[in-house]
Amino acid sequence: MHLRKIDTVNLTEALGEESGGGIHPYHEILFISEGVAALKWMGQDYLAPAPALFLLPPNTPHLLVKQSPACKIGYIELDMRCSADFLDLSHAALWNRMQSDKDPQLPELASIYESACRMWDSLSPQSPYKAIAEDLIMLDIRKLLLMIAYFLRARESQSIYISDSFQIKSDTNERIQTIIRYMESNYYKQITVNLLASHAHLEVSYFIRAFHKIVGKTPLQYLHDLRLNAAASFLQTTKMSVQHITEAVGFQSIHYFSRLFKQRFGVSPSLWRSRHTL
Predict the structure, then answer these.
(1) Which stretches make up the HTH araC/xylS-type domain (predicted)?
(2) CA proximity to 85, closest of 140, 169, 146
């Protein structure tokens, strides 16, 4: 996840004038901190008094219209880069609908809005942590998205707002994370995609798609990365032979290992060792 832009806007134009919007290939968080505004999005109008927080997936046209004399907003544009932290379109729509009909004093919602209010504090010139402002903001964004996802899951368990699809998505993510931890602990063993899918209790093609969506790589690519990172560490810190290292990290062929290593690091294992030995 990468922070593309963060800013605040104090809307001072005439009542009802179109205040901003458009379309872009990035995820966006839109927070109304003061006043009332209407969001036109996905064919719907959401009239929302502050505090209100909208989540906008990429490539979805939107238009914000001020509805009160005083109106302040903050917005954040994100390049998620295959991260699964942001709600998908259907659940973003579910959350956004709630902004027009909500009780901001509800403890669960109050905590979310309080977190949103604080996200822009790191930008203050008076902040003693201005040098690490972007890192702090990214932590706040992850926290905010996690809180919203948890809120929706809790509502789902009460059968009030959402269907089983969100739980299925959450369950799949948990299974993939379990598989990732398994791979990190057992990378040197003989691992196949079929074995991993079986451990995750998922059909193979679905497992590969879900893994790629969450991790940004196929299971085999991720396994190769783990093995190559381990091999580089052995090359740098031990006197093990290249053949021994090949076997120690789980590759069956030294030629296959050497080819993948050169693709990743640009040189052969032996040459890499000569340049990086501690």
Answers:
(1) 177-275
(2) 146
- CATH number for 267: 1.10.10.60
Amino acid at 267: V
Domain finish residue from 105, 137, 157: 157
Task: Please give the torsion angle defined by the CA atoms of residues 103, 107, 108 and 114, in that order, rounded to the nearest 10 degrees.
Answer: 90
Exposed (0-12), middle (13-18) or buried (19+): which is 210, by Cβ within 10 Å? buried
Are 126 and 210 within one domain? Answer: no
82 lies in the same domain as 191: no
The pLDDT tens digits for 34-61 are 999 999 887 788 899 999 999 998 888 8
Q: State the pairing for strand pair 27-34/18-22.
A: unpaired
- Whole-number Cα distances in Å, 92 to 37, 54, 229: 18, 8, 37
* Average pLDDT for runs of 10 along the chain of length 278: 86 61 85 91 87 91 87 90 80 89 81 87 77 87 92 67 43 87 90 91 89 92 94 91 95 95 95 86
Residues 221 and 104 placed together within one structural domain of the fold: no
Structural domain total, the chain: 2
Cβ(182)–Cβ(223) under 8 Å? Answer: no
The CA distances from residue 22 to 40, 53, 61, 62, 73, in Å, are 10, 18, 5, 5, 16
Give the residue numbers spanning the domain of 225: 169-278
- 1: nearest Cα among 38, 22, 23, 29: 29
Answer with the one of 91, 126, 157 that is the final residue of a domain. Answer: 157
User: Do both 135 and 173 map to the same domain?
Assistant: no
User: In sequence order, what are the residues at sequence separation of 6 or more whose Cβ sits closer than 8 angstroms to the Cβ of residue 136?
Assistant: 122, 129
